[in-house]
Write a structure and sequence with these properties.
This protein has helices spanning about 20-30, 35, 45-50, 85-95, 115-125, 150-160, 175-180, 185-200, 220-230, 255-270, 285-290, 295-300; strands at about 30-35, 55, 60, 70, 100-105, 130-135, 165, 205-210, 235-240, 275. It is α/β, with parallel strands linked by helices. It has a single domain (about 20-300), classed as Aldolase class I (TIM Barrel, Alpha-Beta Barrel), CATH 3.20.20.70. It has a 4-stranded mixed β-sheet. Strands 7-8-9-10 form a 4-stranded parallel β-sheet, with helices on one face. The chain has a two-stranded parallel sheet with strand order 3-4. Helices cover about 40% and strands about 15% of the residues.
């Protein structure tokens, strides 16, 4: 059973105008978005502002996280080699200044999609030199967390493509990771991914996020924020988990707007350069507003 949402969670309904234009561009170029595949509640708002999170590497994920509405299966190594060019074209046609790229997990291919990610970033930058690019990446471990050197090599491919922000989500607190995420995911591996990005390029802006309402305690949320800061994460997002279908995890609690403000206050105390914490926040929601590149430069000066 899906619990009714409290009064403070209001989802905007799709309209016309910009929403329709974005929809037509994405359909014309046969591109997937996490907005649709994951049943994101912010689709009307984001598309109405001509922003979308483009999902590459297909629309079938090799992992089955219990919170996620993306289709799970085995793509059998199939890749659409024309997709990176179509993504760059979509960015141009939509007139984006900031683009978020995400993907399904692809444990079925040799480099888990790292090279494909890098190629897509490079093509976007080549065709749209003034666009800021934020890849929201998987762990690139092919479901085997044993060889961290292999993962590091794949992360270097992403860093070398020169994105502006690199994001990787912890999704939930450590205690709930095995319950919420696919069994091949690991809280500590995700922290290692974020740390490795900083080790490869210390000046790279990193970002991570979690959902609340899955059974965590607030102290565990603060512990997770501390763990993120320990590996140098710059940007934090915290949003309310909303159950996409009856087959997914149920909502354990609806966190109040006041508590989200407290998360944000604590985040600033801990030294995050930017923190977006509210019920409908998702990792890529208003990412262009949360981009802290100018703030970071100002702070460095």
């Amino acid at each position: 059973m899906i619990k009714p949402k409290p009064a403070w969670i209001k989802v905007k309904l799709p309209g016309q105008g910009e929403y329709r234009d974005v929809d037509e561009i994405l359909k014309d170029l046969k591109l997937n978005t996490v907005c649709r595949s994951a049943r994101c509640p912010n689709i009307a708002d984001c598309w109405g502002r001509r922003t979308a999170t483009i999902m590459i590497l297909g629309d079938v994920c090799t992992r089955g996280c219990r919170f996620c509405a993306v289709t799970t299966g085995n793509p059998r190594g199939v890749l659409d080699e024309t997709e990176p060019e179509r993504v760059a074209e979509a960015v141009r046609r939509m007139g984006l200044k900031y683009v978020v790229l995400t993907s399904v997990d692809r444990d079925d291919i040799e480099d888990a999609g790292a090279g494909y990610f890098a190629k897509t970033i490079e093509l976007i930058k080549k065709d749209n030199p003034h666009v800021l690019v934020e890849p929201l990446i998987p762990d690139f471990c092919n479901g085997d967390a044993g060889d961290r050197h292999v993962v590091r090599d794949r992360l270097k491919m992403i860093v070398d493509a020169r994105p502006d922000v690199i994001a990787h989500n912890l999704e939930t607190v450590e205690r709930l990771t095995s319950h919420v995420r696919d069994r091949r995911a690991s809280y500590r591996l995700s922290l290692d991914v974020l740390l490795a990005v900083k080790e490869i390029k210390p000046g790279m802006t990193t970002k991570s996020g979690i959902m609340v309402g899955l059974g965590e305690m607030d102290e565990e949320v603060y512990d997770t924020m501390y763990d993120m800061r320990e590996v140098g994460v710059d940007i934090l997002t915290i949003g309310q988990y909303l159950q996409p279908t009856r087959n997914h995890l149920t909502v354990e609690r609806f966190v109040t707007p006041e508590q989200f403000k407290e998360y944000e206050r604590r985040a600033k105390e801990m030294g995050f350069i930017s923190a977006a914490c509210s019920p409908l926040v998702r990792s890529s929601y208003h990412a262009e507003d949360a981009s802290i590149l100018p703030k970071k430069e100002a702070k460095t000066i």
